[in-house]
């Protein structure tokens, strides 16, 4: 599921899988995206958030002056993210939003931002600025006429972190583990996302679906 990420001369991708299920639909699509990235010549690693020890954000803002006071797995993850070239965030839809694992994960990404007040307004400087990013969203419901809450969540956060929103995969009608395997076009779409992030030169942004 991973290629060698220790080579400094090779572009690197991290895929953050926000489902507690192993071998569930979100996991399956992430592994396909990894295959696509590796086929495109990029080192890639799948990170399952359920396997990490992630404590809640304390809201203390100590990370704006120094290291986060919470000692868990997020310290190493944050440094890995800062060193990566591309990021993918994958989540099942729980009660119309991203999973609790994904939300807590994003709550702990404040150390990647620096806040400063300019002319009475807060400005953000991001250590992730300019990095390519994509999303994978899996839900049981059919595609509807309204914009999804997870898509809005990622769009707003990508804007704050100054990430380039470079591609997206939406899986519909996927409730039981393995449902996505019955959608070959969807599996190929996940592989294509990995290839896109591996091959796309900086600045050539592919906008996500408005779903």
Summarize the structure.
The protein is of the alpha/beta class. It is built from five helices and seven strands; from the N terminus they run βαβαβαβββαβα. Helix 1 crosses helix 5.
Output mean pLDDT: 90
Class of secondary structure makeup:
alpha/beta
Beta content: 15-25%
Secondary-structure element pattern, one letter each: EHEHEHEEEHEH
* Strand order, sheet with most strands: 2-1-3-6-7
Model regions low in confidence, pLDDT < 50 over at least 5 residues: 2-6, 203-207
Q: Helicity level, as a percent range?
A: 25-40%
| Count of distinct strands | 7
Rg of Cα set:
17 Å
Give a description of the structure.
With 211 residues, the protein is an alpha/beta fold. Helix content is 29%, strand content 22%. It has 5 helices and 7 strands; from the N terminus they run βαβαβαβββαβα. The strands form 2 sheets. The chain has a 5-stranded parallel sheet, sandwiched between helices. Strands 4-5 form a two-stranded antiparallel ribbon. Strand 6 (132-138), helix 4 and strand 7 form a beta-alpha-beta unit. Helix 1 packs across helix 5. It starts with 11 loop residues before the first strand and ends in a 12-residue tail after the last helix. Mean pLDDT is 90; it is low at 2-6 and 203-207.
């Amino acid at each position: 599921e991973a290629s060698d990420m220790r080579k400094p001369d090779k572009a690197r991708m991290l895929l953050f899988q926000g489902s507690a299920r192993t071998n569930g639909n979100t996991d399956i699509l992430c592994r396909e995206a990894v295959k696509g990235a590796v086929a495109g010549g990029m080192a890639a690693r799948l990170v399952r958030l359920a396997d990490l020890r992630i404590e809640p954000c304390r809201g203390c803002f100590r990370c704006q002056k120094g290291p986060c006071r919470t000692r868990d797995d997020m310290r190493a993850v944050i440094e890995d993210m800062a060193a990566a070239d591309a990021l993918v965030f994958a989540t099942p839809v729980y009660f119309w939003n991203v999973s609790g694992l994904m939300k807590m994960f994003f709550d702990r990404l404040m150390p990647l931002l620096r806040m400063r007040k300019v002319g009475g307004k807060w400005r953000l400087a991001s250590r992730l600025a300019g990095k390519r990013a994509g999303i994978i969203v899996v839900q049981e419901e059919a595609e509807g006429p309204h914009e999804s809450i997870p898509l809005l969540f990622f769009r707003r956060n990508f804007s704050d972190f100054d990430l380039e929103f470079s591609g997206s995969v939406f899986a519909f009608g996927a409730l039981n583990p393995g449902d996505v395997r019955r959608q070959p076009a969807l599996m190929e779409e996940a592989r294509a996302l990995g290839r896109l992030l591996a091959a796309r030169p900086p600045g050539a942004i592919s906008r996500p679906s408005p779903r």
